[in-house]
Specification:
Its main location: cytoplasm. This protein has a 7-stranded parallel sheet, sandwiched between helices. It has a 3-stranded mixed sheet with strand order 7-10-12. A 3-stranded mixed sheet has the order 8-9-13. The chain is about 50% helix and about 20% strand. By secondary structure, it is α/β, with parallel strands linked by helices. The structure holds NADP nicotinamide-adenine-dinucleotide phosphate (NAP). The site of NADP nicotinamide-adenine-dinucleotide phosphate has 27 residues, from α1, α4 and β7.
């Protein structure tokens, strides 16, 4: 049987990387990984594992059309955080949508988020831009499944907790005691693969991913248990105080915390495990990643 070509945007990153990895494990798919730089180490590693590499840039519509030629499926996530420009993020997402429509892509999996401005009355620009792209994709009749990622467990490796003067580590989610959903972004590649394998079942549906819904005190307890004698604590900072930290994006991230606390984002551990039974709890994930976590703490 001919293999389905799935174009994976962001394949050198966390979400797309998880998706590319899962599809590369399945002989039913041919992965075409899109990157702005085909000679980067991450791109080369994908090629070595059997992915086709194409250079493409969300800011260059012609490159998107070329990348999507002959594709059956497409996974796409835009990266607001890189440029932090709302209009540019929406323009990039619409350009990919238009290119997918022109190429006749049969199944788009789009990594979206909620329209916080519309539902809560305050903005969260990196959520709102994705919601606008989602709306556009639906308005032009793209065959789409929407997935929504919560916070990644991997943030504890990629950003790491802050080391305090007393030698303990502070988890920076300023949630004032509220619980939040989180998941391993790597695990979710396999959930997306299930969606691609079962197009008819998942078309026109939205899935909010989650591996666990826990308070940050529970995150701290899990990390302290596995990484003892290191001790972890949730930040005492309020959402409001976080919004005034002054680094680029701080206000928007604080508004995301406010949305986590007050907006009850629709994520489902049950549905996520149905898509990928191997979806790990935070406890399992920390146990599996002790060495990587300890390496990060050594550098603090
Ligand atoms: N961290 C979290 O907990 C979390 C949770 C939920 C959602 N998110 C959302 O996830 C998104 C980021 O995804 P990620 O975590 O997978 O990011 P990432 O690991 O930083 O990777 C970004 C990817 O996007 C690609 N890319 C960026 N700009 C591009 C452009 N102009 N044209 C083509 N490709 C481009 C990069 O490819 P090349 O560099 O190879 O070109 C790279 O593969 C953000 O919008 C964020 O809001 C994050």
């Amino acid at each position: 049987m001919a293999r389905s070509v799935v174009v994976v945007f962001g394949a050198t990153g966390l979400q797309g990387g998880g998706v590319a990895n899962a599809l590369l494990h399945d002989s039913g798919f041919k992965v075409r990984a899109v990157t702005r730089n085909a000679s980067s180490a991450k791109a080369k590693a994908l090629q070595e594992r059997g992915a086709e590499l194409v250079e493409g840039n969300y800011d260059d519509p012609g490159s998107l059309e070329r990348a999507l030629q002959g594709a059956h499926g497409m996974f796409v996530v835009t990266n607001y955080m890189e440029h932090q420009e709302f209009d540019r993020d929406v323009k990039q997402g619409k350009a990919v949508a238009d290119a997918a429509k022109a190429a006749g892509v049969q199944h788009v999996v789009f990594s979206s988020l909620e329209n916080v401005q519309k539902t809560m009355g305050f903005p969260c620009l990196f959520y709102d831009s994705k919601a606008e792209i989602e709306e556009y994709m639906k308005s032009i009749g793209l065959p789409v499944t929407i997935v929504k990622y919560p916070a990644y467990y991997e943030n504890y490796i990629n950003f790491g907790p802050r080391k305090l003067e007393d030698g303990t580590y502070e988890l920076g989610y300023a949630l004032e005691g509220a619980a939040m959903h989180a998941v391993s972004v790597a695990d979710m590649g396999f959930a997306v693969r299930t969606i691609f394998k079962n197009r008819a079942e998942w078309l026109d549906r939205t899935v909010g991913f989650s591996g666990d819904k826990l308070t940050i005190q529970q995150h701290a307890d899990i990390l302290s248990k596995h990484l003892a004698p290191k001790v972890f604590k949730p930040t005492k900072m309020t959402t409001e105080e976080y919004s005034k930290l002054g680094f680029p994006g701080a206000e928007q991230i604080a508004n995301m915390f406010k949305f986590y606390r007050l907006g009850n984002p629709d994520r489902s551990v049950e549905l996520t495990r149905q898509l990928y039974p191997g979806t790990r709890s935070l406890d399992q994930w920390v146990a599996d990643n002790k060495e990587a976590l300890l390496n990060v703490l050594e550098k603090k």
